[in-house]
Amino acid sequence: TKILILNGPNLGRLGKRQPEVYGSTTHDQLAERLVAFGQELGVEVEVRQTDHEGELVGWLHEAADLSLPVVLNPAAWTHYSIAVADAVAQRTADLIEVHLSNVHAREEFRRHSVITPYATGVIAGLGIAGYELALRRLAEPPSAP
Ligand code: DQA
Questions:
Q1: How far apart are CA 60 and CA 66, in angstroms?
Q2: Is the reported ipTM for this assembly greater than 0.85?
Q3: I want to staple 130 with a disulfide (CB 3.0 to 4.6 A). Which of 24, 38, 100, 126 is the partner?
Q4: Is 101 assigned to a binding site?
Q5: 73 lines ligand 1 (CB under 6 A)
Q6: With left for phi above 0 and alpha for psi between -120 and 50, is residue 86 left, alpha or beta?
Q7: pTM exceeding 0.90
Q8: 139 pocket-lining for ligand 1 (C-beta < 6 Å)
Q9: Pocket test for ligand 1, best of 5, 53, 101, 131 (most atoms within 8 A of CB)
Q10: CA angle 113, 118, 82 (to 5 degrees)
Q11: Angle between helices 27-41 and 129-139 in degrees, nearest 10
Q12: Ranges of the chain with pLDDT below 70
């Protein structure tokens, strides 16, 4: 089975974007690393990024229709997109919310997520390792504790 990694707005600029917050790894490098990590786990991993809310909503519908597990970094949409939250609420497989930075140690507005009530779990502040931990969990057999 396949696991989708979906990244929201401005994450295509990783490497150039506030490297002191988000690190120096580019989105291409992130994708390469996570696909390789998936191979180690024996799962197919597909990484996508978009700056367009409707495109992300469409990908979440696709994941719901095909029962694909998802690792989602909704980026800024985390904090206000009811459209993305409503799409996540339709999930038919596990979905783990991931943030590269520790959103609880930054501006107050980053501390609230409209996505979390519909996610299986959340990982924040561990950089790209957070995606790997999420993949490890999603690659486990369903209903593992
Ligand atoms: C982010 C945190 C968000 O607050 C921010 O808008 C992002 C990235 C993270 O990965 O740390 O774009 O989701």
A1: 10
A2: yes
A3: 126
A4: yes
A5: yes
A6: alpha
A7: yes
A8: no
A9: 101
A10: 55
A11: 30
A12: 142-145
